[in-house]
Amino acid sequence: MYLDHLQLTDYRNYGHLTVDFSPGVNVMLGENAQGKTNLLEAIYVLALTKSHRTHNEKDFIRWQTDFAKITGLVQKSSGKVPLELVISKKGKTVKVNHLKQAKLSQYIGQLNVILFAPEDLSLVKGAPAVRRRFIDMEFGQMSPSYLYNSSEYKKALRQRNQYLKQLKYKQATDRLYLEVLSDQLAEYGSAIIKQRLDFLTKLEGWAQVLHHDISKGREQLTFEYVSQLKGDTTLQQALHADVEHEIEQGTTLIGPHRDDVRFLVNGKNVQTFGSQGQQRTTALSVKLAEIDLMKEQTGEYPVLLLDDVLSELDDTRQTHLLKAIQHKVQTFLTTTSLSGVAETMIEAPRVFQITHGELQQTTD
Length: 364
Prior knowledge:
Elements: E1 2-11, E2 14-20, E3 25-29, H1 36-48, E4 67-76, E5 79-88, E6 91-96, E7 99-100, E8 113-116, H2 122-125, H3 128-142, H4 144-168, H5 175-214, E9 221-226, H6 235-241, H7 243-249, E10 260-265, E11 268-269, H8 270-273, H9 276-298, E12 303-307, H10 315-325, E13 331-335, H11 341-344, E14 350-355, E15 358-363
Parallel strand pairs: 3-13, 3-14, 8-12, 12-13
Antiparallel strand pairs: 1-2, 1-4, 4-5, 5-6, 6-7, 9-10, 10-11, 14-15
Subcellular location: Cytoplasm
Family: Belongs to the RecF family.
InterPro entries: DNA-binding_RecF, DNA-binding_RecF_CS, P-loop_NTPase, RecF/RecN/SMC_N, RecF_2
């Protein structure tokens, strides 16, 4: 899978942009605040209909315009697939093969992307919410059923939390309705946990090989899914058992929205006891493992977006990163300098110079 063509209309600092990409390595070269990250973000948004940088979708729309439009042509093994995303102040509309899709879940997965940015190094040492978001974004691309369960769980969670607050402040008294909401939440939540465990087991297998190579055989990486469920207790049982405490707090205290993933290097929690180098190696191994897992799950390699990440990695980790992607995935890489990039690539990249939202191809 690769993105053959991209067109932007009134997206961030791009008025109008039309560009054809190489199926190999594409380098976005330019100073800071010129639009390099905006271009990578546009590809990410085209794939997932949301950004990794902001929750405010109005930020996508260029100043003093009414909407932003992103269109792309995705080349798959089965043929070319045109995609279109329009973001207005009223919401989003999406098209696949020029046909409007009623649900975003029918659209997501047409273009699979993996983003690796400096902030992704916080995947290991950051808060649990960072890892949950990572799981949901990546697994959602690979599995329509996971995306569906995740969406329905969030809806059910909002309903249950609202009703718990009503019970807390004596605005409602119907405990039977709470049981219905709990059972609904447990159904989707149990499915999510099961799917997460399955995906994480597979991701761990790919990441272990990479981590072993990067650490020159000195380290073994393992994953541990951290849930508040104890023993054989089901989510349904736990939700019913803790109901008085949840009413008192006015919120749902147990479920996959509170779970976490722990990364262990040689049996020790790398988040707590690992060096910065071990944390970075772990993050790199996990992100690169996604490439092979996505190919395994979907039959297509994803598109890789590297946003100024080479500057954050030492020579050894850079070498493993570039070795992992060479001749395998279409890659978009942003940088302020070509120094070291052309030399480390096996084949010369296609280079684009970006200045004030204007893009010019300099090499092929």
